[in-house]
Design brief:
Strands 5, 6, 7, 8, 9, 10, 11 and 12 form an 8-stranded mixed beta sheet that branches. The chain has a 4-stranded antiparallel beta sheet with strand order 2-3-1-4. It is built from 20 helices and 12 strands. It has 4 domains: about 120 residues, Orthogonal Bundle (N-utilizing Substance Protein B Homolog, Chain A); about 45 residues; about 55 residues, Alpha-Beta Plaits; about 160 residues, Rossmann fold, CATH 3.40.50. Helix 15 crosses helix 16.
């Protein structure tokens, strides 16, 4: 799996399940393989800093397969209860299988140096003191790039203790969240078929959180009546559906960046309950095909559902200005809010990615505002806490569009704690047990 991520830019959460099935690992070995794979990816930056102190050449110059094995061995030594001799010997044996005998000797020597200190001792040696460089210290102590630490700190108002808690939450394997799709299956029915492993989500009336088990083994999930969807993502759809419109009817909704269809399937059910229709668009044909499949399942569960998937670019709208009542803009973003689910993502993204994404986010939101009628509502959502992707985007569009007012999201999330003082809401794993979704609402003045 590590090689697939390195050589093919694969996503670990897509590759690993297939490998586990292919190798027919029992539950115990599958759990260990998952911990080693995801843990090694999450900790890559810190592991490389340790390996740089122990290797005779720069980490970037080590043969890539050997470098992956060194990271895997170092992770076992520093982060697991695998005995040191076992971690070293198995990693050396793997190196011998994929490389030369000289590489195996190199691996043995490096890992023995790694084993001379504990994780805490290595952090104390390689990280700057917290009181001199808090961001630099947290980056190595909590396995995040320094720029991501800074983004979290800024979003949390400079609170370093809470920043540390947010980073730590990214390193904890998240529970699986399910959504009971309206009109297809009730939450009570979904809970009943989880075999006691499910509990009601605390914030969404459609959410079930699983304590274990394979969600794909549930008949409701296989049939599409329920789906795997983070509770924060569910709240994004619910906030748009709950937002008060100005004068006028509530007839046509749009999910502007809808592929692969999780939010759209939920919105389709919510729209059907109101007698409204949903148009769901994605610019990529393969994502639009997935979207069409998700909507077809939603429609089969609730015959009154009127939902259409189209291939369309929301920056050059195919729909008439002022023709829509509700629009969801779930914009492409850095994904910094879902790092706990995508262990390799924190090391793939770069600060240079942010300006281009922010420009795209502004354009999508600008177009969405012109697409709604007076009194219509736009929900702006990104799975990121980065201020340049969240509050700055909303503030710029509000300055550009004097006929737009910002609505307060917080009253629409009754019972959800720690929502802050801003009318937009930033969810957090350490506060809410969800991905770090940002939710804002704009309404065209009537």
């Amino acid at each position: 799996m590590l090689r697939a991520v390195d050589t093919r830019d694969a996503y670990a959460n897509l590759v690993l399940p297939g490998l586990l099935r292919q190798r027919r690992l029992d539950a115990r070995d599958a759990a260990l393989a998952t911990e080693l794979a995801y843990g090694t990816l999450r900790a890559t930056g810190t592991l490389d800093a340790v390996l740089a102190r122990c290797a005779s050449r720069p980490v970037a110059e080590i043969d890539p397969p050997v470098r992956d094995l060194l990271r895997l061995g170092a992770y076992q030594l520093l982060r697991t209860r695998v005995p040191a001799h076992a971690a070293v010997s198995t990693t050396v044996a793997l190196t011998r299988a994929v490389a030369s005998g000289g590489a195996a000797g190199f691996t043995n020597a490096v890992l023995r140096r790694v084993s001379e200190r504990s994780q805490a001792e290595w952090v104390a040696e390689i990280a700057p003191p917290f009181d001199e460089d808090a961001a630099g210290h947290l980056a190595l102590a909590e396995d995040h790039p320094r720029w991501v630490v800074g983004a979290f700190r800024d979003a949390l108002g400079g609170d370093l203790a809470e920043t540390a808690a947010a980073l730590a939450a990214d390193n904890v394997a998240p529970a699986v969240h399910l959504v009971a799709r309206p009109g297809s299956v009730s939450r009570a029915e979904l809970l009943e078929v989880t075999g006691g492993l499910g509990s009601p989500g605390p914030w969404s009336p459609y959410a079930v959180r699983l304590a274990g088990g394979d969600p794909g083994a549930l008949a409701a999930v296989r049939a599409g009546r329920a789906g795997v969807q983070d509770e924060g993502s569910q709240l994004a759809a619910l906030v748009l559906a709950r937002a008060p419109l100005g004068v006028g009817l509530d007839r046509v909704w749009l999910d502007a960046c809808a592929g692969p269809g999780g939010k759209a399937a939920l919105l389709a059910g919510l729209a059907a309950e109101r007698g409204a229709a949903l148009l769901a668009a994605d610019r990529a044909p393969h994502r639009a095909r997935l979207l069409a499949g998700a909507l077809a399942v939603a429609a089969s569960g609730q015959p009154a559902t009127r939902a259409l998937a189209v291939v369309a670019d929301a920056t050059v709208p195919a729909w008439a200005a002022g023709s829509l009542d509700r629009v969801l803009v779930d914009a492409p973003c850095t994904g910094l809010g879902a790092l706990r689910r995508r262990p390799e993502a924190r090391w793939r993204r770069r600060p240079a990615d942010v300006p281009g994404l922010s420009a795209l986010q502004r354009e999508l939101l600008r177009r969405a505002v012109t697409a709604v009628r007076p009194g219509g509502v736009v929900g702006y959502v990104v799975c990121s806490p980065h201020l340049a992707e969240t509050r700055a985007v909303v503030a710029d569009i509000r300055r550009e569009c004097p006929d737009v007012e910002q609505l307060d999201v917080r009253p629409l999330l009754a019972g959800v704690p720690d929502l802050g003082d801003d009318p937009a809401v930033q969810l957090w794993p350490h506060r809410h047990g969800t991905d770090a979704m940002f939710l804002a609402l704009l309404r065209r003045r009537s």
